[in-house]
Design a protein that fits this description.
Layout lengths: L1 H12 L27 H19 L7 H7 L22 H12 L20 E2 L2 E2 H57 L10 E6 L5 H15 L6 E3 L2 E5 H7 L15 E5 L5 H5 L10 E7 L6 H13 L3 E6 L15 H7 L2 H20 L4 E3 L10 E5 L8 H15 L1 H4 L6 E10 L3 E10 L1 E3 L3 E4 L6 E11 L11 E4 L1 E3 L2 E7 L11 E3 L6 H16 L9 E5 L2 H13 L4 E6 L4 H7 L2 H4 L5 E5 L5 H10 L2 E5 L2 H23 L7 E10 L5 E9 L6 E7 L6 E8 L1
Parallel strand pairs: 3-6, 3-7, 7-8, 8-10, 9-10, 20-21, 20-22, 22-23
Antiparallel strand pairs: 1-2, 4-5, 5-6, 11-12, 12-18, 13-17, 14-15, 14-19, 15-16, 15-18, 24-25, 26-27
Helix pairs in contact: 2-4, 16-18
């Protein structure tokens, strides 16, 4: 039967099978080579295995042929029509590949001896497929696929090598830049000298209406009224006291002129409130060297005063206390611009007693906060205890004492921090639009030098800002800052100073961020990543998928302070932004109306709100709360939350059920409306409580419930 199958198959296909026919010379036939080139041994074995597997799949025969059938196929001879020589026994099934081909041919013959074409194969003509030998075409396709795979692998390897080389190069450049900056920093530190000190930077903190701004206004107005040409210069966002002005103001407590002044001046940041301190971020040396905590002697410690103390502790910043408004003590006899001790000695006994009593109350309140404090002239240890200076912003009393104390503490105890450093340290204080100058930034230059034309990098709301300095401006002495002609141009400015910078693309600059100068060999991208790290750190605190409020603040530091306060108050935040509130900010908050309407709220701290944004918020139902004090903002939000909770309680009152057990005493009316006299056995009965009567069958003990309605 097997022989008949082979005869019919060979006669129909006119196929010459390698391995079943011998050579004309009787030699052993050579194995055919498929394709145009000979492949390596491993690839040839793989291709052979793949070919056998494909053939097996095409035949769709799950079982391999039995060994007996293979043995029966060995002695088969070709028919006379083909005129094939009889093959030798050792040439039959020369390789397992040929055996697999022969088996597949056997499988393609049905029981009647007819050859069945496989559906998966194309029609063959005279042992050829599309005009090419079948074996050769299969070999060509395999070779092409192998070549394509090899090429793709080579290309991917080359791309990976290029990427890895590029990444290594970038990492190497960053490491070199960081090392170079560190070397420059070490050189700058080594070049410092105790004989070359910069002006200390001082911040004023305290509760609202304690007289912070009034205190500085009094100093400026005093010098302006006296018309001192070399007096106090009003700098950008700060008050600068030159050495000559300090000597003149401290004359009442330095009458013999024996004190040796080593600092060139004193820079006091006069931005109202404590926000200026929180947003002046410290990298390396702190921007603020010393602080003045202003306390109202009539009110003592207030909420914002306590927050200011916490901020000072967190920053580990030394500070003194200005116990202000001593002129409000009953019977106080003022000594304008005089030393405090001399003024106190002139007061009557009642005023002295009241002052002593109120000062002791302030000292006790500070001790409750863990701060040992003394009046500055009674302080046994300035390093361990807080010094208190009584002042009056109205009469100027105690101001000479305060300035002298600041000078002594800074130049005697902070020499290491005040040594002039050539490395630049600069912080953006405010972003302002000035007529004729465009958008400008007010910066505090705490160390180093700024030159006109320097390329600077600073943090922006839409990414890093890289631009060139067009002009460095400071106002003329004793001139109003609003006067355009009052600004003096500088080619360079030296620390410590407040400076106004004009440049392009400053509209999105973030107040409170650092300002860096691109030096020779510095990579702008590295510096850009460095300045944006502060904002990215705040963004990591926000969970956009959770339920929470949207927060908007004026500066980077005030935003950080507000986020910290909300975190301690367990209020979630889903979105943050810096700057005025516009319609796009309201649109970002609107989706919270669907998820959690009670959190569709914008908390705006010390920012302006656009009129169109207010109208859109009212239309959508988004609540906007604005305040200049964190506590007021928190109070407004908590009051709104309580209002919503009360509203929900009223809405749910109809569905709320308070269980109770009643015993009927008397039935007054058995029809609608049913009027009963009852005794409350358990629970409580309220208006709206649904009641029912329960009847128990005496025989079956089944309970039947009759609804009587609601009370």
């Amino acid at each position: 039967m097997a022989a008949l199958r082979h005869e019919q198959m060979l006669a129909a296909g006119n196929v010459t099978v390698a391995g079943l026919s011998g050579d004309a010379d009787g030699q052993k036939p050579k194995r055919p080579v498929y394709g145009n080139k000979r492949k390596p041994r491993k690839e040839q074995d793989k291709a052979t295995l793949a070919t056998s597997e494909e053939t097996a799949v095409e035949d769709q025969v799950p079982e391999s042929p039995k060994p007996q059938e293979a043995k029966q196929a060995e002695p088969v001879t070709a028919p006379e029509a083909v005129k094939e020589p009889e093959p030798a026994e050792d040439n039959i099934a020369d390789s397992w590949e040929e055996a697999a081909v022969a088996d597949s041919w056997e499988d393609q013959v049905d029981e009647d001896g007819n050859v069945v074409e496989s559906k998966a194969t194309a029609p063959e003509v005279n042992g050829k497929k599309d005009g090419k030998p079948v074996k050769e075409e299969e070999g060509d396709e395999e070779d092409e696929e192998d070549d394509e795979d090899e090429d793709s692998e080579d290309e991917s390897d080359e791309e990976e090598q290029k990427q890895s080389a590029t990444q290594k190069l970038i990492a190497q450049k960053k490491a070199e830049a960081a090392q170079r900056r560190e070397e420059e920093h070490q050189k700058a530190l080594a070049a410092r000298s105790a004989d070359n000190l910069r002006s200390p930077i001082c911040c004023i903190l305290g509760h609202v209406d304690t007289g912070k701004t009034k205190l500085l206004d009094k100093i400026r107005q005093t010098n302006v009224q006296e018309g001192e040409a070399g007096g106090i210069t009003q700098q950008i966002g700060a008050t600068y006291f030159p050495l000559d002005a300090i000597k003149m103001k401290t004359a009442p407590v330095n009458k013999d002129d024996s004190f040796d002044f080593k600092i060139p001046g004193l820079l006091v940041i006069d931005t109202p409130g404590h926000e200026s301190f929180t947003n002046l971020r410290s990298r390396g040396s702190s921007l603020c060297n010393i602080a003045i905590l202003v306390i109202d002697i009539m009110h003592g410690l207030e909420p914002q005063t306590l927050e200011s103390i916490r901020l000072l502790r967190d920053r580990k910043t030394p500070f003194i206390v200005a116990l202000n408004k001593i002129d409000r003590i009953y019977g106080w006899n003022p000594t304008p611009n005089g030393a405090f001790q001399e003024s106190l000695a002139k007061q009557n006994r009642a005023a002295q007693t009241e002052f002593k009593s109120r000062a002791d109350q302030a000292i006790l309140a500070l001790k409750e906060q863990g701060l040992n404090s003394y009046l500055y002239y009674e302080n046994p240890n300035f390093g361990r205890n807080v010094s208190i200076v009584p002042t009056s912003a109205h009469t100027g009393e105690g101001i000479p004492d305060m300035l002298m104390l600041l000078v002594k503490l800074t130049q005697d105890r902070m020499t290491e921090k005040l040594m002039y450093l050539s490395e630049l340290e600069c912080t953006v204080l405010e972003v302002k639009v000035i007529e004729g100058l465009g958008t400008t930034i007010d910066v505090i230059l705490s160390n180093g030098v700024l030159h006109e034309g320097d390329r600077i990098v600073l943090c922006g709301t839409n990414g890093p800002i890289i631009t060139n300095i067009r002009a460095l401006l400071t106002p003329e002495p004793l001139k109003e800052m609003r006067v355009k002609s009052a600004y003096v141009h500088h080619k360079e400015v030296r620390a410590a100073l407040g400076v106004k910078i004009t440049a392009q693309d400053l509209g999105n600059a973030i107040a409170g961020s650092r300002l860096l100068v691109v030096g020779p060999g510095d990579d702008e991208d590295d510096l850009a990543d460095e300045v944006m790290s502060d904002l990215e750190g705040l963004m990591s605190r926000v969970d956009k998928k959770a339920k929470g409020v949207c927060v908007q603040a004026s500066t980077l530091g005030s935003l950080e302070a507000l986020l910290e306060f909300l975190k301690t108050s367990n209020i979630a935040v889903t979105d943050i932004n810096i700057g005025p509130v516009h319609k796009k900010d309201v649109m970002r908050c609107a989706p919270m109306l669907e998820r959690a309407p009670e959190f569709a709220v914008m908390l705006c701290f010390d920012v302006k709100i656009d009129k169109e944004a207010e109208e859109l918020a009212a239309e959508l139902g988004v609540k906007i709360f604005s305040a200049n004090i964190i506590y007021h903002l928190f109070d407004k939000f908590t009051a709104y939350q309580k209002e919503l909770l009360e509203l929900k309680r009223k809405e749910a009152a109809g569905s709320a059920v308070f269980p109770c057990v009643l015993r009927i005493i008397q039935i007054f009316h058995s029809r609608d409306p049913i009027i009963l006299g009852v005794d409350v056995v358990e629970g409580s009965i309220r208006v709206g409580t649904p009641i029912a009567a329960v009847k128990v069958d005496e025989v079956t003990k089944e309970k039947t419930v009759y609804n009587l309605g609601k009370v």
